[in-house]
Amino acid sequence: MSGSSPKNDQPPPSDSPEKLAGDSSKQTGRSKRVLLTLVKFAIPVGIIAFLVSNVDEAQWAALAEHDKNYGLLAAALLVSIGAMALSFARWCLLVRCQGIDLTMLEAQRLGAICFLLSFVSAGSVGGDLFKAIFLARRRPGKRIEAVASVLVDRGAGLYALLLLVAVALLFLKAPTDAEYMDQVKTGTAVLVGLGTVVLVILVFGGRIVDQLIRWGSTLPLVGGLVDKIGPPLRMFHHHKFAFAMSIVMSLGVQSMLVISMFFVAKGLYAEPPTLAEHFVIVPIGMLMSALPLTPAGVGVLEATIDKLYEVVPAEPTVASGTLVALVFELVKVVMGVIGTIFYWTANEEVRESLEEAEEEA
């Protein structure tokens, strides 16, 4: 009889109170996540509706008077899709530099999902956390390297934006507001200078930088952080050609986005700002929209483009920067549909990474 004591490590029956309570808790958590996702998607939609309602009636009337070139609007979408695909290829290149396996197809699939996620996070940098977590799950022990690839990918894109602005400013005719543009030139020069110095040191610094990293790893408080992030960032010292290619690809991505918005402007208005002026206007707008202020930078981009449409062109334009940027946002929404398809058809590995990213966020 002594050996007939009940075992306490058996799982509860399927209809036990403990099991039912656990199922109810999971269902409640799942419902909350769905509701939160719907709310997040509703925020950018609400911002767009607010912006549309605040467009001046005279601007709507001026837009209605012009014939629309739908061929150029379709071209804007195709160019933007090409820019998106090129940016995902750049990320794949940087990931491989960190010794993490990632196929080009996977990079395109994950990148499209991350683009979709950017619409539910503050700023236009959404999805980066998901990228890092997916790569870390793929290669345990490579979490820091995964984060490094994402950071360098983002940095390469921002650096390319600054370079485009700097080059375009050299060829820009006298703008309407010269004083404002002088401030833009000064700020751009400072940022390009700082970015160039940092990149040159990381990629070409050699033994001196390695010694600095080793010294920094011995410092109190920050030593552990320096020891972890230093080597992954220095990995590009051994992949100079790949890193240079990432910068070239970034210039291609940002140039295509400029051309896309110019096509939108030409599709809506007969005489918008010139293409050269858009190479100043659009990158600055993209930089501002990268700030973590609103989901996908919606609202920030429109306000910035509208202001720059007033001060950058040498000849005043009747084109509304707000309307052009709004249509460009709609182009991005259509691009997000591609991410939605990949999101719905994601495999278990991707779904688990998404759930983990939600929990950590």
Automatic annotation (TrEMBL):
Pfam families: LPG_synthase_TM. It comes from the Bacteria. The chain crosses the membrane at residues 34-52, 72-93, 156-174, 186-209, 241-264, 276-298, 318-344. The keyword RNA-binding does not apply. Keywords: Cell membrane, Membrane, Transmembrane, Transmembrane helix. The keyword Membrane applies. Residues 1-28 are annotated as: Disordered. GO terms for cellular component: plasma membrane. It is found in: Cell membrane. It is a multi-pass membrane protein. Its main location: membrane. This is Flippase-like domain-containing protein.
